[in-house]
Amino acid sequence: MKKTLFIISLCALFFISPTSVFANNPVSHAESHAGIHFISGDEENDSAQHEKNKNATYPSKSTNKTIENEKRNSSGTASISHLPQTGDKAESPLPSIGMILISIYFIQNKKKKRGKNTMKMKNLVIATVITGSAIVASPAAQVFAEETNTANSHAFVSLTAGDTTTPVDPIDPSEPGGGTGNTGSLTIDNVTPFEFGTHQISSTSETYTSTAKNPNVQVTDRRGEGQGWTLQVALSEFKDQTDASKVLKGAELTIPKGELKTTAGNVSDAPNNFASTLAADGSGSAIIMQANEKTGMGTWEDLFNNQEIKLTVPAGNYSGDYSSTLNWSLVDAPNA
């Protein structure tokens, strides 16, 4: 019981303390005045008036209060509302709340019998007093959320179709070189010649691999619309360079599925690439790369492994220096 009364006494002393609610958040107030002087017309009269204004004194805070009291006494009601002055303090509600809570405690204490119920009520009232003091005594500044000032601005950029007059260099220059010099918004930039070297005629079918370095085919789409495109190739007959009547019969060219590469920072989705085997008779064509809509924008290279580019030559062909033409065509649509 003594311990309980001691806790309540401490709470009462806290509540009755004359500390201002705003003790932790002091606000400084002061009065000032503003004046303005316009000069026009009669300069002599204006100058005299200016000197008069300079000698004029503005009412002090005590004078303002006297004038306000006189107006209140003469009319019965104040003509202007009283504004907070320097040093004014808001009265704290803590003493009243503390006395009310302590009174509740003693009233409830008399009504309840001694025992567990009385002990529970004591604990409840003490908890209420402490909780109430914590809530009411919190700084008043917490009631007011900080204001946030926001604003919006905009950024603009305009993109047009790319330069159509300058050829695009290959990402990986090949040897022998295969630059096409093509210009435009959709171009084949590079197609590496496939060289297979010199070989002796065999009595059996033979397969030879390319000797080119960094063989590749490269396409650039600078249209900026994402329409898609298709790259396909057809293979003509291998004919002797000195005797066109000599043809490599039954020859086949295998083009592997290469490694797709693009320029640094290209955000477009990659096109598809495919492996293909072509008969050296000019009878058909094959798709090597294909970009669906919204893919394959920018520059894309299909880099082949030269050991996987193969030419198969059956036995029974004539000797000679044979060459063939690969006809590459780029269609401005995803379906050729």
TrEMBL record:
<dbReference type="InterPro" id="IPR027994">
    <property type="entry name" value="WxL_dom"/>
</dbReference>
<keyword id="KW-0812">Transmembrane</keyword>
<feature type="signal peptide">
    <location>
        <begin position="1"/>
        <end position="23"/>
    </location>
</feature>
<feature type="transmembrane region" description="Helical">
    <location>
        <begin position="92"/>
        <end position="108"/>
    </location>
</feature>
<dbReference type="Pfam" id="PF13731">
    <property type="entry name" value="WxL"/>
</dbReference>
<feature type="transmembrane region" description="Helical">
    <location>
        <begin position="124"/>
        <end position="145"/>
    </location>
</feature>
<protein>
    <recommendedName>
        <fullName>WxL domain-containing protein</fullName>
    </recommendedName>
</protein>
<feature type="domain" description="WxL">
    <location>
        <begin position="147"/>
        <end position="334"/>
    </location>
</feature>
<keyword id="KW-1133">Transmembrane helix</keyword>
<keyword id="KW-0732">Signal</keyword>
<feature type="region of interest" description="Disordered">
    <location>
        <begin position="44"/>
        <end position="91"/>
    </location>
</feature>
<feature type="compositionally biased region" description="Polar residues">
    <location>
        <begin position="74"/>
        <end position="84"/>
    </location>
</feature>
<keyword id="KW-0472">Membrane</keyword>
<feature type="compositionally biased region" description="Polar residues">
    <location>
        <begin position="55"/>
        <end position="66"/>
    </location>
</feature>
